[in-house]
Structure formats: structure tokens, C-alpha cells
Amino acid sequence: MLEETSSRVPGFKQKLAAWWHGYDVDAVDEKTPESEQDADEPRVVSAPRFKQDLTARAAVLQELWGSGCVSPGPAEFMREITAYLGLTAEMSMLDLGAGLGGPSRAISEEYGIWVTAYETREDWVSAGMEQSKMAGMAKKVPIAQFDPETLELPERKFDCVLSKELLHALGGKSRKRLLGEVKRTLKPNGQLLITDYIAAAKSLNDEIIGAWNEDAELESRFWTKDDYEAALAEIGLEVCVTEDISARQVAFISAGFRTLSRRMEELLADEADAEKQSNLRRALAFETRRWAIRSEILQGGDVQLLRLSAINHVEPEIR
């Protein structure tokens, strides 16, 4: 199935091979000038060129997905999917799985909202917090480390909780427990916004699961849309919106790799150490293979990226 869909992947593996071996990428694949591109096509905003002690993987991910981002979905998209939430500067948000904090900072910058950003990886926490400080948002968007298996959240603290492609890496019991903590920390009429990878059908082919997880740092354990709706109903959250945004994700993946060769050349030029350059190239090869496979599977429809929002309909206490 994966080989059958390979023709639909937008050619970034071929571009990588040409760049890796020193060919003229422009000659291999004729590029469309930016002025002639569709204005609605997603864009990737390169990471700022300040000196920061990032791992090779984090550096490559930023070049792929934009400043402060470790997964597809630019800042513009995060502002788009949060536009209907009615966020204001008087509100607070919790971001579970914040990466380097790019999406959190984009949302805070747009609405003035205070965001508490939680990330599992210690290196991303320190690098993301440094970026928040450099953006003048250390208090507005602080980033801290957490363990989703054991996290306990304060009661009725946040107006909104965001989880961007985190929950699929948790087992069923751990996922339900964390969703219970989310319910507890939401204020009355608070909102939950999730984007997560799901199985399109209850039974997912083992070959698809194996291919998806082959180059994954964390193994995905897919729920279906019905599984999510049932779990949220069980804890008293009302699902308002479910939307398959897989096509958007595939477009973001394509956009990330479309001009990657130029951005990687700039990144390598800024790094004089030969070993670190080699690490960057290995990280690039790893991410290229991983996202090529995921793009194929998403286009095949077996796995989808779901956008889901829910509301905590709880009457406030009368004091």
C-alpha cells in the first residue's frame, strides 16, 4: 500500500538525494517563483538565526516547520484553529506537548492570552524557554517539563487546554487519566482543543501501524474518532467540533520540504564543527524518511489527523 501511494508524496526525498550528493537542486526540480505561487499555499517561516545550543534534531525540525515548531502546522494555522475560541488577554491556556513553544507563543501574541506550556523533553523545555525569553515572553509563555503519565493539574485553573499531536503516544489508560486531569483543570465553560492522529477505522492494518512507528521516537497507539467522543463524554466534556484535517497536514509537510535544501545549506554554513554538521545531515535524513512515510499514510486515509474541540459545561458554584 505504501509503495502504491509513493507517487503522491511531493518529491522531497528526490530533492534531498540531489542536495545530499551535491547536484543542482534547481536543475533537478524546477521551482515555482514565490511570486507565482498560490497565495493560499502554506509557508514555512525560517527559524531566527540566533546562536542557540540546540540538538541536531531540534535544529532540523525548526527548519522544516518554522521557528519554535517541532511538528507540521505553522503559526498562522494555530491562530486559525483557535480563532473561534474567543480567547482574550484576561484568559489562561494550558498547552500540553508544547515542543519549543512556537505554537504557544503564536497564540499568546495573537490574543494576549497567558499560556502555561508543558513539554516532556528536557532539552526542548530549556531551548523553548530560552526562545520565550528572547521573544520577551518569559512570563507570558513559560515552558516547563511534565510527565503525562503522572501529571496532576489544579482544579478549575484554565480557560482553555490545547494538546497538539501528543495523546496518540499514550496508552489508553494513561490517555483517559490525562483527559480526566484536563477536565478537572478546566474552568466552567472552559474549552479543550485537540489535534491528534487517529485510526480511520476500528481495525488498522498491522503493516500500516508498523510503517508509521518504524521511525517514530514514541510509538503511536491510535484511537478512533468514536473512541475520543466516548472518552470525553464519560468525563463530562461535550464535543462541539470534529474535523479531518489530514489534507492540511500533508500540505504542511510538502511546504516544509519544498525549500528545505536552501534553509539547510544556511544552517550548515552557520555550523563550523564537522561533527555537528554530520549530526545535522543524519537528523535531516531521519526526519525526511519519517515524514515521507507519514505523508503517504495520511494520503492513503488509514490514519487521519483529527481536530476536535470540546466544552466543559459546568455551572459555576454559587458563593
Could you please describe the fold and organization of this structure?
The protein has helices at residues 12-20, 25-28, 56-65, 75-81, 102-111, 122-134, 172-185, 206-214, 225-234, 246-258, 260-269, 274-300, and strands spanning 92-96, 114-119, 143-145, 158-164, 186-199, 238-244, 303-311. Helix 4 crosses helix 5 (102-111). The model is unreliable at 3-10 and 18-37 (pLDDT under 50). The chain has a domain at 56-249 and 300-311: Vaccinia Virus protein VP39 (Rossmann fold), CATH 3.40.50. The longest helix is centred in the last third of the chain and has 27 residues, at 274-300. It has a seven-stranded mixed beta sheet, sandwiched between helices. By secondary structure, the chain is of the alpha/beta class. It is built from twelve helices and seven strands.
Helix/strand class: alpha/beta
Mean pLDDT: 86
- The general outline is globular
State the end-to-end distance.
Answer: 60 Å
Q: If you consult CATH, what is the topology of one domain?
A: Rossmann fold
What is the percent of helical residues?
A: 40-55%
Count of individual beta strands: 7
User: Looking at the chains present, what oligomeric state does this protein adopt?
Assistant: single chain
CATH level-1 class of one domain: Alpha Beta
What does the largest sheet look like? 7 strands, mixed
CATH architecture of one domain: 3-Layer(aba) Sandwich
Low-confidence stretches: 3-10, 18-37
CATH superfamily of one domain: Vaccinia Virus protein VP39
Order of strands, main sheet, comes to 3-2-1-4-5-7-6
Quote the beta fraction: 15-25%
The total of helices stands at 12
Radius of gyration: 20 Å
Helix and strand succession?
Answer: HHHHEHEHEEHEHHEHHHE
